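Appendix B: complex inputs.
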Amino acid sequence: MPSDQTDLPTSADVFTAAQNIAGRIHRTPLIRSRQIDELCGANLWYKCEHLQKVGAFKARGASNALAQLPAETQMVATHSSGNHGAALAWAAAELGLACTVVMPETAPLAKRAAVAGYGAEIVICGPSQADREATLQKVVQQTGAHVVPPFDDRRIIAGQGTVALEIMQQCREQGFTPDIVIAPVGGGGLLAGIGLAVAALAPDVVVMGAEPAGADDAQRSLRGGVHITTPQAPDTIADGLRTTLGRRNYAVIKRTVRDILTVSERGIVEAMQLLWTRTKQLVEPSAAVGLAAVLEHGARFRNKNVAIVLTGGNMDLNRIADLFVDEEEIQ
Amino acid sequence: MPSDQTDLPTSADVFTAAQNIAGRIHRTPLIRSRQIDELCGANLWYKCEHLQKVGAFKARGASNALAQLPAETQMVATHSSGNHGAALAWAAAELGLACTVVMPETAPLAKRAAVAGYGAEIVICGPSQADREATLQKVVQQTGAHVVPPFDDRRIIAGQGTVALEIMQQCREQGFTPDIVIAPVGGGGLLAGIGLAVAALAPDVVVMGAEPAGADDAQRSLRGGVHITTPQAPDTIADGLRTTLGRRNYAVIKRTVRDILTVSERGIVEAMQLLWTRTKQLVEPSAAVGLAAVLEHGARFRNKNVAIVLTGGNMDLNRIADLFVDEEEIQ
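Resulting structure:
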């Protein structure tokens, strides 16, 4: 299927992306917590992408996409209810490009404020995927904007993969090799990019994905060998992981990722609380899904060196209060 | 007054403390946020003592005190409702010493859990300062434990001052000199220690304290020139700053600290929210008091390089929810 293969990103694209975005993004810290290690019986390192520009790894992909725009592009656009919109708005502002972000009316106010804060125009649409795409299509017809999709895109996947190049380098600097690299999977841009990077750099290192049990299309796709594309309406606190796995993402993940584990909602909240109290890092629910997988599938990680990507730290502060109401109820 | 002077800590004690505790505590990061800088019109650096051992700068003083115990001490004790108790419990466990912490029945469960988690014995007492001291006295009579006070102690002040040695070194590494170093003041161990360190290293750098307006005994003492020792019952969200300024602390602060600024409760919550959302660092209310002072006394900091000590990150997660109820009400 040449048309399927030719637009797939490669490991080389990840290395190129690292050059494209060097100096534009942060080399985020790799931290650890002895207390959580003792609790899990494993050696865990956390890659702090909540400390990345715009507070999420999405800055990597957006920055890489804008580094290779078609000549004379003056405007970019996307649809997003979350961090990709903010990342594209930020990256466009850095280059002096106009940017429009189509956002569903259900998007959190904090996310709207972030997009507006970077100077992008916001077009509000209905809550469904179809609403978003139709509205984005209209924007493109009216303005000729170049579309940068949130995850199913060669440049985006390659950009997100740069996080794994840094992880491998930082592990070397700290004198160890990870046995496992684990990252949350929603649309699959991050996980596919990590798969490509690790396959090239350290093929013995196992790459795993983690997703909420209530949004398990990636696990079912990978384990069943058939890409499930039915749009879901997943009910999970991990708002960044509600999207369905992309086509390119699936194609890369099935070649480079060992397995995808699912986690419970309770596990996500517990992992987030552990990260908050033990590392004092304010990560968002989606970012806790990797640690939740280690907590809930302990046997697979026992005594292993595990690098876990903390993907972002953007959330409405009011939602924090809601979470702890939930916590009280489940305890 | 020789009896007053001879037990006062000196700048040399701070340098000795740094040697005493080297390798036992973390060299915490010095971070910044461009967004908060723009909001404040100043260049702000945050010293991350919430990432210190036990989640607070208190590990420095406790560690220094235990490095110079009387010969054959086998047991230490203190009274504390907060981070000093956890710090002493941790430092004692590191040295294999027994430790008893007298805690008021009103101490947060999270603090009790931390003290117990480090293996110390907890003796619960009534809520007043008199209750605490009487109970500690009983413990000492029964056990012969050596008392390590929370702040009014030469070794504690010198230990806390080591944070300023690191700040000055990290500023040099980053190629600038701070104009101002600002830290919260409760009992005054941290602020006095910083005053001693900066006086020796960089006497042109201004040291300032910050405290809640509802617990302003340090400001009144410093501005009035008379040490106010009346116990207060201050009503502030900054639970770490409810104590009254110590005798040695006052004596050092009046010689080394330029001024003490007060901040409102609303300002503390706003500063904490800014730190949470912009730096993704989960600091406790007391730790936000330095930034609150910059926000509320902007003219004194305009265009200045300011190092702000984030003192700790320990709080009941349930209290987070309560805080945001407060936030909703004040907005």
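Residues 2-56+153-330 of chain B form a domain with the Rossmann fold fold (CATH 3.40.50.1100).
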